[in-house]
Amino acid sequence: MSGSEKARLIVGVSGASGIVYGLRALAACRELGVESHLVMSRSSALTLDQETELSVADVQAMADVAHKVGDVGASIASGSFQTLGMIVAPCSVRTMSEIATGVTASLLTRAADVTLKERRPLVLMVRETPLHLGHLRTMVKLTEMGAIIAPPLPAFYAKPQSLEEVVDQSVGRALDLFGLAWTPVKRWGLDVGPVKGGT
Fold first, then answer.
1. If you placed Cys at 160, which of 83, 102, 123, 165 could pair as Cys (CB 3.0 to 4.6 Å)?
2. Angle formed by the axes of helices 20-32 and 163-176, nearest 10°
């Protein structure tokens, strides 16, 4: 991005369980002074209702810009609109699979496709377990295309004291992949460890 432009990050939210990851990514952008561009899948509204007390309007208000998922003419659908890249948090298997095919049916997956073609970081916080061979092959394909598969896994070495700390560590480590250092992240060798008395 040019020096005169504010850093921008696209935040995609799919309908997978774990919508809190997207919410915390938006909060992190606000704290870091990064302009957030939100796009939510239609099914994410169902997950939002199931997992939080928030409305879609509440989540949209957390972003600097909220795009409609059907607006394929939005700024984030074009490679000429400069961003740091895109994070999909959480990322469903359906969303992951659609991105892998390049046949994009919504603004969320179109923006992800644009991110890949522009060689910008695309970080997919895939939420699924266990994984069958088709899932794994799709992840390999996406990795070969330039995406980063970053499932949100707990970092026990950080000794989290709450679910919020577990979530923030995962989100913060994903943001590291865009060169964004978020305060809640506990870092090995600085905030935690190394283990004393090792051989």
1. 165
2. 60
